[in-house]
Amino acid sequence: MRVTKLADVEPRPRRVAVGEFDGVHLGHRRVISGSDTVLTFDPHPLQVIRPEAAPKLLTGFERKCELIAELGVRELVVIPFDHRFAAQTPAEFIDEVLVGRLRATRVAVGENFRFGHRAAGDPQTLIADGRFETRVVPLVEVEGEIVSSSHIRALVQAGEVELAGRMLGAPFELRGEVVAGDRRGRQLGFPTANIVPDEALVCPGHGVYAAHADGCCAAVSVGVRPTFGTGRGLLVEAYLLDRQVELYGHILRIEFLRRLRGERRFASAQELVAQMQEDVARVRELC
Q1: pLDDT in tens, 107-129
Q2: Contacts of residue 252, Cβ cutoff 8 Å, sequence gap at least 6
Q3: Where do the domains of the chain lie, and which CATH numbers do they carry?
């Protein structure tokens, strides 16, 4: 898949799907289906318009590109979102971007899509234009709940990674460089690979999870390690079952499958080790 800034696109007819597409969830995938081009924005519009209301994202830009490419899209066109672009009227967006730059023959959006200054444009605005076909995709439901990026963010933050994964169409993923810790896990018999979460991205709520880490079964702890009271910030620690390799400096991909329990404080290291043994046994069953 080719990734292109709007200013650099080549003239050709396009079937365009338009949206922010954070997470590339099941609803997004239906919007994108049948399109050869995806038009998206970077950074997230709220980071420019209302920074105080900007959400933590489900996917960084690199991961979003990977997920969209997996759908067979030919080209990802990126609009650098700034105050100038935010001031465009819906008519200007249609004339200058969809028709002028992209030569859209078909435009696909979700039914709650809004665009232009003060979000004045909606799917009916696109339908009324007539210079291209407009495909409006209804909201998708999973288990009776609307699939949306904001809802999935809330699920992840609450630790509900199973339902979040079903709405995403794939397990929620974190990735980061493995950094040195205080080797506490190694001393307890459970050496972990530690990553520092990207503060711009959503992180699962504190607790212990069954996960895949680089394809291996893993017990993953998210929290601040209350038993030892280190006073450190948020830690994501992955104990990879049946794999003993040096991972420092490696980019580790963690796919969260299920929350096993909440974060707890234990009276002693021995009690913690006993619980960790139970956690690992459950992870082995689940994976």
Answers
A1: 999 999 999 999 999 999 999 99
A2: 175, 176, 177, 178, 193, 195, 213, 214, 238
A3: 2-145 (3.40.50.620), 172-286 (2.40.30.30)
